[in-house]
Amino acid sequence: MNEVFRTSNSVKERYRIECGSAGSGKSVNVARDFILKLSDVKYKGANLLCVRKTESSHLDSTYAELTRAVREIFKDKWGAYWEISRSPLRMRCKGTGCSVLFRGTKDDAQREKLKSIQAIEGKITWVWVEEATELDETDLDIIDDRLRGVLENPNLYYQITLTFNPVSANHWIKKRFFDRCDSDTYTHRSCYLQNAFIDESYHRRMMRRRELDPEGYRVYGLGEWGESEGLILPHYTVACVNKEPDFYDRVAIGQDFGYNHANCILTIGLLDGDVYVLSELYTRYKDTAEIMELAERAGVSKSTIMWCDSAEPDRIRSWRKGGYRAQAVSKESGSVRAQIDYLKSHKIIIDPSCEALIREIGMWKWQRDASSGSFIDEPVCINDDAIASLRYAIEGERKRNGPRAISKKLLYI
Predict the structure, then answer these.
(1) 8 Å CB contact between 88 and 185
(2) Domain 11-220 top-level CATH class
(3) What string of H, E and C letters represents the secondary structure of 257-296?
(4) Are the CB atoms for 46 and 92 separated by under 8 Å?
């Protein structure tokens, strides 16, 4: 394990707050820490509850990290010590009876399930909230209320662990846990430079980010709190939205192509001038056929215009052959700024399931002039794949009544 987390793994304060940069190793460490404790008879009767805003996100985050920790700790004999299930997501240590459960807080139904959750043996003593900045403060209060009652094993204690990147200095987590002293709270900060297992290529990538996006590097490289100054779209709302296309005046899809960079597909609804982001398909390292298969499974509409990056005509043709109404976005001079102006002048409501867009929109900023330090009218072009999809998705609406208007019949379902 990384030495920087040694003290963090032994504290017993009710709130263990792990704030750090991307690549700091905080989530890997937390997963290993919990697996070691849950496998130890000293902590018999303990159970871990993992929480994400969207329950389905666990598969590729907390569940993946915990499963990897089991395999790395117990090697090829892990099956003798742990039962691991993907459907439903669940983990249980055979020797201690300690379990891991997974829940979300996206809507009232998921919150109600959280309120009534019970472990088969013992109590839920520990909670791990991954990507904690996605949650509302009321979500944490619901979780906190679950940790109560006398613990028969004297070695047990109640604890909530939050892991996150410090995306905004205005976030409620900073105000609640960092801006005031509290004997029940342990806070820890880490960055990728303290990770003994980081590779050289990742370090070079961060050095490139430091040059291109100094503010993003402060957050995702050094683990410092991000500032809201210079945000391009500071006013947006994260809330559950109606997923039925018929509910909206118009519906559109935007796709930004990628492989090493993420490939992102967003479906948006337009209602009374407001922009609602209904769904997101965000993936890396997959070819067009694989992404089309994911889109098919996700129910991405084939009857709705899909506005795509015009720089990839071959991919657009592939999507058309696959039955989708893929169409290139015209990238005339000033189009990006025009898309930004459109988005800034409309309300944007994003469903909590669109995690990549929520992450990117909270960090999307104007560039600074190198000499004066003032912001210029050019966005920082890094980690903006979901943002690009959003810009493309509103193209039809933006141009509908403009000088180069296109027939509404051609733009939408």
Answers:
(1) no
(2) alpha beta
(3) CCCCCCEEEEEEEEECCEEEEEEEEEECCCCHHHHHHHHH
(4) no
Q: What is the residue type of 255?
A: Q
Decide the pairing of beta strands 48-52 and 237-238. Answer: unpaired
Whether 173 contacts 15, CB under 8 Å: no
pLDDT at 294 over 60: yes
- Mean pLDDT, to the nearest integer, of 153-168? 94
Question: Which CATH number does 237-411 carry?
Answer: 3.30.420.280
Q: Quickly count: other Cβ atoms within 10 Å of residue 55's Cβ.
A: 20
**Looking at the chain, how many residues does it have?**
413
Strands 263-271, 274-283: pairing is antiparallel
For residues 305 and 269, give the distance between their C-alpha atoms in angstroms, rounded to a whole number. Answer: 12
Strand duo 89-93 + 82-86: pairing: antiparallel
Please say whether the beta carbons of 107 and 240 come within 8 A.
Answer: yes
- How far apart, in whole angstroms, are the C-alpha atoms of residue 177 and residue 200? 33
Domain residue spans of the chain? 11-220, 237-411
Q: Residue 354: which region, alpha, beta or left (left: phi > 0; alpha: psi -120 to 50)?
A: beta
Q: Do domains 11-220 and 237-411 have the same CATH topology?
A: no
What 3 state SS string does 200-231 have?
HHHHHHHHHHHHHCHHHHHHHCCCCCCCCCCE
The tokens 């499963």 sit on which residue?
67
Q: What are 328's strand-pairing partners?
A: 308
The rounded distance, in Å, linking the Cα atoms of 217 and 165 is 11
Gap between the Cα atoms of 122 and 251, Å rounded: 49
Instruction: Give the closest residue to 133 by CA, choosing from 175, 100, 102.
Output: 175
For residue 85, what are its two tokens?
């299930």
The structure tokens listed for 206 are 């961060």
Please give the pLDDT value at position 224.
Answer: 86
pTM of the model: 0.70
Question: Which two structure tokens, joined as six digits, stand for 100?
Answer: 């891991």
Q: How far apart are CA 142 and CA 49, in angstroms?
A: 13
pLDDT tens digit sequence for 161-205: 999 999 778 789 999 999 988 899 999 999 999 998 988 998 898
The four Cα atoms 227, 233, 234, 236 give a dihedral, to 10 degrees, of -140
- DSSP lists the bridge partners of residue 375 as 368
